[in-house]
């Protein structure tokens, strides 16, 4: 349980926080640390970011946040998310996200910053932050869907399917769930077979021509989450979310 790193030319970082992969504050920092460690290893050519269980990621651990008497867990989770998303983006080798089941909230931040996405047929992608009294990761959702679709998803909190993202061209492959990890590793193997120096420079070049600074824009979004918590709207929404469950 937690976050594990399996090293190799194709390194795997695996998220495992049962029952739904709602990641605690410390877990986001662990993702950041292990993705960074994988990328720093000169023998690594590709990183596969995957998860155990029925869903890839349910976002932050709302229960952990609500148990806290102050804003320390919120602040830790927000810093942890920023670090994890940045680690995926800044990883000097390509990162392939292997997504099954639900990918929500912070999960969107991870896959939106990945270089490629391979998804199971049952995968869905959503940003339910408005219903949970928070804002953030629209920066990363905008890398997955067209602008008006991104706005619609933020306002309504409705998810889209892996098939939808495949039509948009942002999911590389959609496969049956039992084939997900093998397919991600096969794609990774194809990239890993290329000259590693060229691939690392390609990753650096592609990041350099991005039109949006994803780290700065995400931190801008997070500022509104702080505002919602200061005025009480965030806590009201989280209480309602937990009560409805």
Automatic annotation (TrEMBL):
The keyword Lyase applies. InterPro entries: ClpP/crotonase-like_dom_sf (IPR029045), Enoyl-CoA_hydra/iso (IPR001753). CDD domains: crotonase-like. Coiled coil: none annotated. Keywords: Lipid metabolism, Lyase. Gene3D superfamilies: 2-enoyl-CoA Hydratase, Chain A, domain 1. Pfam families: ECH_1 (PF00378). The keyword Zinc does not apply. Belongs to the enoyl-CoA hydratase/isomerase family. NCBIfam families: PRK07938.1. PANTHER family: (7AS)-7A-METHYL-1,5-DIOXO-2,3,5,6,7,7A-HEXAHYDRO-1H-INDENE-CARBOXYL-COA HYDROLASE (PTHR11941:SF169), ENOYL-COA HYDRATASE-RELATED (PTHR11941). This is Enoyl-CoA hydratase. It comes from Paractinoplanes durhamensis. The lineage of its organism: Bacteria, Bacillati, Actinomycetota, Actinomycetes, Micromonosporales. The gene is paaG_5.
